[in-house]
Amino acid sequence: MNETTAAEPSLTLEQGASLLSGADMDTTRALPAHGVPPVKLTDGSNGLAMNLPFFAGKVAATCYPTLSAMAATWDPDLVARVAEAIALDARGAGAQVLLGPGMNIKRSPLGGRNFEYFSEDPHLTGRLATAFVRGVQRTGIGACVKHFAANNQETDRMRVSADVGARALREIYLRAFEQVVTEAEPWLVMASYNRINGTYATQNRWLLTDVLRDEWGFGGVVVSDWGAVDDRVAALAAGLDLEMPSTSGASDALVLAAVEDGTLDATAVRASAQRIVELSRKAAAATRGDDRTGESSTAPLDTAALAEEAAERAAVLLRNERGVLPLPSDATVAVVGAFAQTPRFQGGGSAGVNAAQPPAPLVAALTAARGGVVTYSPGYADDGVTTDADALARAKATVSAADVGIVVVGLPEAAESEGYDRTTLALPDAQLRLLEELVDAGTPLVVVCIAGGVVDLEPWREQVDAIILPGLAGQGVSQALARILTGAVSPSGRLAETIPLALSDTPSHLSFPGTTESGAYGEDIFVGYRGYDELERDVAFPFGHGLTYSEFAYSDPAVRATEEGWECSLLVRNVGAFTARDVVQLYLGAPPAPARRAPSELIGFATAELAPGESTQVVIQVGHRALARWDEPRGWVTDAGTHALRFARSSRDVIASVDVEVAASGAVDELTPESTLSEWLDHPVVGPRLLARVRELDAVGNTIGLLSDPTARLMIGGLPIKRLAVDAGNVLSSHLLDEVRRA
After folding, report:
1. pLDDT greater at residue 71 or residue 675
2. Statement: residue 293 has pLDDT above 60
3. Is the pLDDT of residue 338 over 50?
């Protein structure tokens, strides 16, 4: 066992193997004599979450909105600025890798870790995750995107098999990862706990090598989620470089024994060791401080102000009847709800931040912002789940005596955390009882609903005047809400996930969560708004929805073809009385195709902040790939026909639509004799070619009649075409199939 690595000749195989697992819980192993220092990794998706020695707590740090709240900003630039600030904190604390962002798709609103993820949509997720990685890495330290892949539930997350079709994997669950890997080049990718179609992600060669490295060109380190390795030798052979945390040498012994007995090729050890060496040396540059990209700001950063700005931008105004918001300056205001005194501001689990400045009570922040007295009554206990008749009566009396009531409700901390899924979308019964009492008071009512994920807004949604969702907005949540409620700023957030009328309406309802044996993704590509649209189900509020205090007018929609795809533009004008931010969204309406498409798919968006009377032309660039679907085994293909490019305020609020004619594209040589008759005839290139050639050869007309008969197609369209090609009674033959396929 004295072989040395080819790329790093000074390392023996034993030394190379030693680099492939952690030194402890959050540090890689070092080989100082060979110039390989350790690498410190830390959590930090919404603020530095570095553990103190011996798990004595966490380093104090600025706490920003969770990724679910940041997604509601629909603003990649802001996401990048926040990510940069977190990375600077991490770097200052001695870390060289930030374990984030989490970018799994929200398959179900019950996902317990949804507060750590961006969205139910892969395009929005991909844009924001790419910005996050760029923000981190322009400070000189590395980002680790996670959890790769299909880590969509917490129930039995260590073993569950995500049984998902190839098309849904590519279009929904892998698409954002592909974008961030190819555009932002993260230093690391974290392989998830779960299995994918029966194989653990950590030992899935198709996922880690065929797709991630060979297809997408990833050159960094693949690290396991902590404790996710089931078989270290199989994982290394599949492409997993670094196992975390430490196994105290046990994994090294397994790897070396496998090389010794011939079950593992030594080149796999060498390749992974070399990637760890390269990571270590990049990390050393971060420690020295000589690796900034030049994009990172050198000005002193007011992190508290940035946290407040992000919280302001994350808040989504769902409803504002009769202009109850912003609060009139002369109105008497009552605040109800224990969460107004101790607001929730982040989720539970490993990413939790020890906030350097815990959020102030909303009551105090609102009092300061208004410059007057705000009355208060808790209405329910600090735990969020208990109340009594006296507390309800006092709350009702407080609101009845005011001109406007603000009630703060939300999920208790225990409802959302890493490690388990939610079982309901409902608010606690105590809070529902409070809402019922306050609605009955007759005072205009504003509901602030604090949660990291979707909450059931029934039956009170249409009984209150306004609803604001701040999300888990970090330490600046109370100041942000006070400024929004008083009109100092106009809310600008947009929903990054659909709010259904009922849990039973969700597309994944019958198959979430999955079990150890099988977690069937029965909804396929119809995740989130795609599924609600396909099923034609009403929703409480659609994906992309959000109100401001102003109004916008739109004109001059245009689409211009470019070499890369299409340039889509729209003139936006602020016709209201407030400076406000608009989010113009672009959705695709695909033509009829052999494979079902969602009625609407987000393919672009842009933001514009405008003063009253101001206008601007919003431009959205769309690449050719945005119109494609995944076809197994042909890969990404575009169907010929009319594609509608729809400018919209939300997935269900279209402003204007422009049609573009698109020619078919995609590989053709994957058609085989095993492909069905329908697959051959429906192919945009080969299908017409086959029919034309059959017409030339079919003197009697029997074969072309069969292929053109709709009833016959329904009955035998699923037959492998080779079974028709052996029938001497028609003109189809193996030679003809080969001829038209290769022409």
Report:
1. 71
2. no
3. yes
Could you give the CA distance from residue 40 to residue 142 in angstroms, rounded to a whole number?
Answer: 11
Q: What span, in angstroms and rounded, lies between the C-alpha atoms of 283 and 196? A: 32
Q: Tell me: the pLDDT tens digits for 232-289?
A: 999 999 999 999 999 999 999 999 999 999 999 999 999 999 999 999 999 998 877 6
pTM of the model: 0.93
The secondary structure of residue 36, as a DSSP letter, is: B
C-beta separation of 455 from 427 below 8 A = yes
pLDDT for res 181? 98
Task: State how far Cα 415 lies from the chain centre.
Answer: 20
CA 489 – CA 369 distance, rounded (Å): 12
User: What is the rounded CA–CA span in Å between residue 31 and residue 577?
Assistant: 64
Question: Which run of H or of E encompasses 606?
Answer: strand 601-610
Residue-level pLDDT at 632: 84
CA 79/CA 134 separation, integer angstroms: 10
Where do we find the tokens 């007295």? 373
Token couple for 282: 């990049």
* From 156, 225, 533, 639, the catalytic residue: 225
Distance CA 178, CA 181 (A): 5
Q: What SS3 class is residue 228? A: coil
Among candidate residues 352, 417, 423, 412, the one with its CA nearest the CA of residue 387: 412
The pLDDT assigned to 367 comes to 95
Average pLDDT over residues 495-504: 98
pLDDT at 294: 46
Instruction: Decide if 429 is catalytic.
Output: no
Amino acid at 410: G
- pLDDT tens sequence across 137-173: 999 999 999 999 999 999 999 999 999 999 999 999 9
Percentages helix, strand, coil for the chain, rounded to the nearest 5?
35, 20, 45
Average pLDDT over the chain reads 94
Gyration radius (Cα) of the chain, Å: 28
Tokens describing residue 622: 């769309």
Which two tokens mark 222?
Answer: 């693949």
DSSP 607-647: EEEE-TT-EEEEEEEEEGGGG-EEETTTEEEB-SEEEEEEE
CA-closest candidate to residue 177, choices 154, 139, 201, 150: 150
Q: Is the separation of the CB atoms in 453 and 473 below 8 Å?
A: no
Residue of 519, 421, 545, 537 whose CA lies nearest to 165: 519
Give CA angle at 544 (540, 548), nearest 5°. 90
